[in-house]
Each structure stands twice: as structure tokens, then as C-alpha cells.
Amino acid sequence: MRVLNSDESRTGTIMTRGRETICRALDIHKTYWRGKVAVQALRGVTLEIRTNDYISIMGASGSGKSTLIHILSCLDTPTKGEYFLEDKLVSSYTDMELANARNMFFGFVFQSFSLLPRLTAIDNVALPLVYAGVKKRDRNQRSAEILEKIGLGDRINHRPNEMSGGECQRVAIARALVNTPKVIFADEPTGNLDSKTGSEIMDIFDRIVEEGNTVVMVTHDSNVASHAKRIVRLKDGLIDGE
Amino acid sequence: MVNDILNKISLSVQTFRTHRLRSFLTALGIIIGVSTVIAILSLIEGLNRSVAEQIQSIGSDLVFLSKSPIVMAGPQNIEEIANRPDLTPDDALAISELPSVEIAIPDISQRLNKLKYRDKEIANVRIRGTTEKFSSVNNRFIESGRDFTKDDVTHRRSLCAIGSYVAKNLFPDESPVGKELNVRGHRIKIIGVYREKGAFLGQSMDNMLVIPYTFYEKVYPSRGESVFERAFFGYSIDIKPKKGQVERVTDEVRELMRRRHRLPFDKKDDFELGTQQMLMEIYQNITRVGFIAIVAIAAISLVVGGIGIMNIMLVSVAERTREIGIRKAVGASNQNILSQFLVESVFLALIGGVIGIMLGLLLAWLISVVSPLKASVSFWMVLLGFGFSAAVGIFFGIYPARRAAGLNPIEALRYE
């Protein structure tokens, strides 16, 4: 991701060193209501994500970093501004298309793992494939492969409550990767883990990027952020620096 | 598509397993509703079927001509009926000449309070005056002895043939043929015994004594002059149509009787024509009332059951808000979530339906074992039970499912 200057944002397209633009957010605003108080979470953010980017979004709590990543990953929609996914305007998407974008374009890793407690590791990983309409046999094969790769080959049939926090987060990463998304978003992926486990998880992200994937993460931990090639700082809903 | 539905069904099975007791209690309303409907429907059906059989067994496709209606439907002017002309054996003779009629016989009867033979006694015997063609009109068969002849009727012979009930109870150890009975001071010789015919609407058809109508007029030379007696005591005529001519018979008989009674065209019939079909319809009208009452009760319990399902589905949606958020985050569309919850509520309702169907069948079977009622199960009842519970599942599941589908993924994920 790069922060565009105003000239670039007006022209709308940038090609840099042959890397393809995946997402382009132009002047994104987000206001939501907490009771009767309007909270301006984002007040005009413009940025772009390109293939094989490795970006950390940093900022204090309340800076709007979570809101931004939710909008970028199509979990939420902006109140104002334009967001393009491969040159298609997301704000014109139907619910179905948004669900499809979350399914095919993006993988998401949450701070609290967000696994389904009743499903085994392999079934959790296979969940995006269920909604992608992949047949059960293929789902299981792909999920098992990716769990194996991430070092959980012996945990395939374990449920979340039978695994450690680090293992759960690795299952969540596997789930984010399973449908070969264009961008993997992570919201404080190490926030619920001890520092040793946290750095193991960060090693996995590093490896994912080395393999050619694109990762965007939100964190307030500068050690974690330092793994990224780019750091974007948010303050009061605006980009404060890169 | 099939794959998708199978997935959702297996999810529903999982939910059902984790909340066994809760699911069962939720389904209870449906279980009670469906089982009542199935049990009662199969009992009504059983009743209908046995009545139909009984009506068939009276004789095949008979047409009855009488002075008074077979069943008084609503208030009717008895005075008017009493003043109608009596039917006569001559009418029967004239009717039997009609082209579509095979046989027509006069039929007159009374109840005898008591009938004695030596030390044995039976009550409520029907004494019936008719002709030698009685057996062939009414599908009767003589089991021992002989039937009447034309001579017996023309010569007013003091003879009778008895039903099997009379034979069994008055002559338990001996053959009744040749014995003599005493009715109102007349000694009547038994010439034959009819084969058993069973009961019709709970009344034995074998508790009777048949004599020539010519002799009946000697036993009962006059009838009381009360309105009631004039209206209801007298000849009726049993008509057996030629094959497939029931419709024509009623038309021809109506025309003939109007002519014989010299009715002008603007006057109503002063006689009643009935067919077995009409008997059946009258009966069905009676059971229909019961049927409607049952359907109403069942509908209420299904609505109650449905509200139970809606309630528990709303609870389930609230409990699984986070799950919904996660599913949406990995790409479940509103449609996916909607159909998942809908499949779940239908599944719940169908489980209730299946248990209800089985329970209802068991209930019907138990009732038919311990009581004289007979149950008859048809496939359509099972289908009905299935269809109704599925409909309840859909109807009461749609609101909770829509609520689940409409959740905002971010808020759902934050939900604790």
C-alpha cells in the first residue's frame, strides 16, 4: 500500500514496478452513531494496496485503524468516498457481491481467533470453501494440506478448546489462506498471545509474504509493525505519516 | 445446490444434538398437534370406511322410496308428512314395471318389545312384512330351511324367516326351523334362518323376523291415528335398479309417483327418494362437523408449536451472533445465513412432525385395540402431517432467519 498524494488520487491509476493494484480507497469517510453521538472514525483516508504489499497500520486506540481495515476487507462500508476492488466500485456492490468479495478476495485473521467452537480445525479451515461451493472432498484435501504446511498436521481433528492460543491463531491463518485470497488482513493478530507465540505467528506472516502473498495488518505494537515493509500511521481518522 | 442443502442439514443435526432437551421441548407443540390430527383422522377414516362397507352391505345400489325422510334434517313439518298419501304394495307393483327397475318390494316394519320362546326372551325385534323377493333385494341368504315363495305371500301364510340373532338367542341348542313363535296372538311357523349380516351403525341387522306383508296386515290390521304414527309407520318401497341405472330409477320413480298421486307440476314431491349414496352423504355430513372441529384444534396447537419454534430460533440467533459474524466474514451471504436458519427451523419442525406422526399412529392403534372403533391409516395423512410441520417450520422460522441474515458482520463479531 502507498499513500497517494492528491494528484495521484485524482488520476486514479498508478502502476509501480509492474505490481498490480488490488484495492484503491479514495477519500474514505466513516461516521457511525454511538447512541446519539456521531463518531467520525475515518475522515478522508486515501490509500492503495498492491500485489505482495506487506503493510502495518498503526495508531492509538480510537484512531480508526480497525474501521479502516474493516472497510478495506468489505466487512463494512464507507459513509463517503470510493473504494475500488480491481477497478470495480465496491459501494455499488450488492450484499451477495460483498459476501463474494470477502470469500474470494480476502482472508481475515482476528485478534480473538474467531473460530467456530463446535467445528474441528479442518472444518474451521474449510469454512470459506463451503461458501465458495467447493466439494467436500476437495475442501478436506485443501484444508489438510494447508494445516500441514502451517505445522498443525497432527491437530486436524482437534476442536478450538483442545488447542493453545498459538495453535488457534495458526488455524485462523490457515482459514484466511485456504481460498487463495488476494489480500490477507489481520487485526492485532498477536494481541491475545504471549510474546514468544506472537513472534512465531509473525514468522508465519513473513513467510506468507515471501511466498508472494499480500498482507495488511493492524497493530499498536511497534515490534510487530516492524515486520512489515510499510508502516501507515493513523491519527484521529486521518493518515498521519508513512 | 444439493450439496449445500446437505451441509445445512448436517449443521442442523449438530445443533439438535448439542441442545437435545431444548429441541425436544420446542418440538413438543408440533408433536402434540400432529399426533392428535393423525390419530383422530385415522379414527374418522376408519369409521367412514366401516360405515361405507355397511351401507354397501345393505344391498347394492338400492333406492328407497318412503313417506318420510330417512333422516330428519332440521325442523320439518310432521303434520305435512302425516298428511301425505300412504305408499302401498300396489305402488311397489307399479314401480317394478318401470324399464330401469329390476325388483321393487313393499317393506313395512315395527319393533316388537319382546319375543318369547319357552323360557327364552329377546327384546326389540324388528318384524318386517315384505315379499318373497326380499332376499334378493337385500343381499340376504337363507342358511337353513327355505325362503318364501310367491304362494306364501298370495295365500297370507303364517310363516316367518328369522335373523341369526333371533335363532342364536331363542334356539341356542336346537334348530329353529319348524318351530312356532307367538306374535300378538298369531302362531307363526319358522321356515328359514338368514345368514348373519352384522351390525349397521351399531345396530344388529340380524335381530329380525320377516313375514309376508299380506300376513303382516293381519298381525297389524290398523295403525294408530296419531300424527307421529301416520307420518312414520307405513309402507316404504325398496327398489333394486337394473345394472348402472340408479340415476334413471330415481327419475322414473319420481315421475310415476307424482302421476299416481296426481301432483300438479307446481307442487313439491309428497314422498322421499333416497339412495345409498345419499345415506353415505348424510353420514359424511355428520362426521365432517367433527372433522372441522379437530382441524381447528390442530391448527391452534400447530400455531402454538410454531410460536415455540420461533421463540427458540430467536434465542438461537442471539446465542450464535458471533458465529454468524464469523461465517459472514469468511464469505457467507445473507442468503446463506437465511437458508441455514430456515433449514434448521424446518428440521426442528419436521422432527416434531415425524415423532407426532409415529405417536399419532400408535395412539390410533391403541384406541382401535381397546375400543370397538377401527382405525384406518392412509398415506395422505402421513403426507399431511409432514407437510403441515414443514409449513410451520418455514412460516415461523422465516422471521428469526431474516434477523440472523440481516446482522451486520462487524457488530456480530463484536458481540459477546
Describe the structure.
The complex is a heterodimer of chains A (242) and B (416). A 6-stranded mixed β-sheet of chain A has the order 7-8-9-4-10-11, with helices on both faces. Chain A has a 5-stranded antiparallel β-sheet with strand order 1-3-2-5-6. Mean pLDDT of chain A is 88; it is low at 1-16. In chain A, helix 7 links the parallel strand 8 and strand 9. The radius of gyration of chain A is 18 Å and the shape is globular. Chain A has helices at residues 6-11, 65-72, 95-104, 121-132, 136-149, 165-177, 195-210, 222-225, and strands spanning 2-3, 21-34, 37-50, 54-58, 80-85, 88-89, 106-109, 183-187, 215-219, 230-235, 238-241. Chain A is built from 8 helices and 11 strands. In chain A, helix 4 (121-132) packs across helix 5 (136-149) and helix 6 (165-177) runs parallel beside helix 7 (195-210). The termini of chain A are close together. The longest helix of chain A is centred in the last third of the chain and has 16 residues, at 195-210. Chain B has 416 residues and is an alpha+beta fold. Chain B has 2 domains: 2-53 and 282-414, no CATH class; 68-270, no CATH class. In chain B, the strands form 2 sheets. In chain B, strands 1, 2, 3, 4, 5, 6, 7, 10, 11 and 12 form a 10-stranded mixed β-sheet that branches. In chain B, strand 2 (101-117) and strand 3 form a beta hairpin. The longest helix of chain B has 44 residues, at 276-319. The model of chain B has no long low-confidence stretch (mean pLDDT 87). Chains A and B meet through helix 3 and helix 4 of A and helix 1, helix 12, helix 13 and helix 15 of B.
